[in-house]
Amino acid sequence: MTDRVSLDTHLQEVRRGTVVLGCLQILQTPGYGYKLLEELAQRGFTTDANTLYPLLRRLEKQGYLTSEWNTDEARPRKFYRTSDAGTSLATTLTAEWRSLSTAIASLTASEN
Amino acid sequence: MTTTLTHRYIAASTKNLGAASESDVRAELEGSIADAIDARVEQGIERTDAERAVLTELGDPAILAAGYADRPLHLIGPRHYLTWLRLLGILLATVPPITFIGAALVESLSNDSIGEIIAAGITAGLSAAMHVAFWVTVVFAVLERLGAATRGHWNVDRLPDYPRSNVDRASSIASLSGLTLLAVAVCWDSFIGFARLDAEPIAILNPDLWPWAISGLFTLIAARAVLSVRILTVGPWTTRMAIVNTTLAILFISLIATLLGRGELINPELVLAAIDAGASRDIVRVLALVAGLATVGFASWSIAIGWRGTVNSTNR
């Protein structure tokens, strides 16, 4: 029971930052909340709706996303798009992730 | 067709957001929930079941609301928790026992049975403990919500210089205990009465001091308490804090001295009764002298620890 809980916590810790990176990359083409949620899940960044929706607003407030209401369809939707600042954040995060992944690879390589 | 469950959910997760963002969040959340329900309906799920499932998956609206408002989901976070715990521990270990002894002493003047004396002490001690726990927690919960500005960036220079900053800490804690006791004593005197007149309790302080002079006194006590809490949570004395502290102490002296000079500090009923009972008229002068000396002593001590703390922290 405790093992199960602590395993979940560790996995969550590893995944935490990746959702932001996923959002920034996917929203290079504008998208709205639910569609983004599905797309993230499809691409392996499973996240909860109640984490994602506030996160989008926070990223917008920090200037990494811009938003626009689209009322062309029957259901008005708020479309988010990655800003220039967001693109450069995504580049930085990706570089960081690559260097981490190299570091992890070197750990397992030295083990064998 | 959205039904009442969705509306109730949205209302619960968007309240307290502020008018500007509320309608925007509401419209967006409405769309997102409707999208999620539609996706499930397309998979052949009954609409009402789909709605229930979608809202269940979104979870407690209070969590979502906190996410939107960027609000902490805890009363006191790791930043203040240890300080809160230590301060509460020290105050709870000192204030209630002292209140217990004080209340029992007062009660023992009235020829009550030992049982009544102990009961009065326990009641007063318990209520002092409740007040201490409640108000200390309120202050820290407010600090938590005022946010990051209170502590600033940590660097090695802020490492406590072992014996010295313990002095700061100890004198802050002593000040807080003293202020709490003073506040409790003033309230106790006003509502219950320290002195006894024909076995009836009577206040030592003039009841006419309510509300203005007493409010002034409590404002000074609260301001001084804020300084002490700042020393405990943020760091050492600064010149500006010592100046504020000195101003507070001087205001305290002038408040008490003015009241003493006008003969308004002590309950006139009590003075008359003492003179009737055969005390010499000097009793007023003696009481005034004792109160005046205590005030000046208390204030000078406060001024001194402020400047000593400032000298210590700038000499590093």
Order of helices and strands of chain B: HHHHHHHEEHHHH
Poorly predicted spans of chain B:
none
- Largest sheet: spatial strand order of chain B: 1-2
Number of domains of chain B: 3
Q: Largest protein interface?
A: A-B, 20 and 20 residues
Q: Profile the largest sheet of chain A.
A: 3 strands, antiparallel
Protein name (chain A): PadR family transcriptional regulator
Domain Transcription regulator PadR N-terminal (chain A): 25-88
InterPro entries (chain A): Metal_resp_DNA-bind_regulator (IPR052509), Tscrpt_reg_PadR_N (IPR005149), WH-like_DNA-bd_sf (IPR036388), WH_DNA-bd_sf (IPR036390)
Transmembrane segments (chain B): 84-105, 117-143, 173-197, 209-229, 241-263, 283-307
Tell me briefly what this model is:
The complex is a heterodimer of chains A (112) and B (316). Chain A has helices spanning 2-26, 33-42, 49-61, 84-111; strands at residues 31-32, 65-70, 77-82. Chain A is an alpha+beta fold.
Describe this structure in words.
The complex is a heterodimer of chains A (112) and B (316). The model of chain A has no long low-confidence stretch (mean pLDDT 89). Chain A has one domain (2-111): Arc Repressor Mutant, subunit A (Orthogonal Bundle), CATH 1.10.10. Chain A is 68% helix and 12% strand. Chain A is α+β, with helices and mostly antiparallel strands. Chain A starts with a helix and ends with a helix. A two-stranded antiparallel sheet of chain B has the order 1-2. Chain B has 3 domains: 4-69, no CATH class; 74-145, no CATH class; 153-314. In chain B, helix 5 (78-108) packs antiparallel against helix 6 (114-146). In chain B, strand 1 (195-197) and strand 2 (200-202) form a beta hairpin. The interface between A and B is medium-sized, with 20 and 20 residues.
